[in-house]
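Subgroup meeting minutes
Present: P.N., E.W., G.H.
Scribe: E.W.

1. P.N. recapped why we're keeping a running log of single-chain structure predictions: easier to compare across weeks, and new members can see raw inputs and outputs side by side.
2. G.H. added today's entry (262 aa).
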Amino acid sequence: MKLTLLRHATLLLEYAGLRLLIDPMLSPAGALDPVANAGNDRRIPLVELPLNLAELDALLASLDGVLVTHTHRDHWDAAAQRLLRKDMAVLCQPEDEAKLRDTGFREALPVPQNVQWRGIRLQRTGGEHGTGELGKRMGTVSGFVLQAEGEPVVYIAGDTVWCPAVAQAVIEFSPAVVVVNAGEARFLEGDPITMSAADVAQVCRAAPQARVIAVHFEAVNHCRLSRAALRRSLAEVGLEAQVDIPLDGETLEFPTKVEPGG
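Output recorded in log:
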């Protein structure tokens, strides 16, 4: 298994012989309006993809499918909708199937609870994209657990804070790899809507068997937590060895048996 962070939450997962693009935000830097009510007016994405146009075209042509945890524009933007083949299999939460089909993706494949897809078992999990009324306004989000013969169990938590649904997922599936969207995204008012450093530490403690991969940094204007700040916070509580914080373009490789921090 290989996992490459392209930018923000956009990942290339090479798993069970397939290439799966997760939460594609493919716009060039500055192409999109900033997230409103974030305390700054920096256009997004804040950084370019770590690929030139030829490399991006080659990557998109090599894909077997796409996994979209939810359709907020930093996970499914207009560039992705334009560049991806309309006959591409797009695995999604049921709430997003109609939206995907309305934009021409004929192979939108909802995961009501679990599905088998080309040798991979996908289990949809819950999450909370923030707390209280703000979390409700952010809409439904999902995580996904992937399992396949000869591969480690992978949990893509999606845009969620630490909550009972995340705790349940790590207990039920004992994932060897957990990908969390950190960055502590937030607005001028209210609590964070993605994981803070304290949330990432909670995941580590709840899943001591797992290698935790933290992404969702330094690309969207409402993400307040930097990679360096997360690394410092984890070091203060002795958990830094369990967490990888990849740079854009970095590839991580995982054997069938994954050792935490290995």
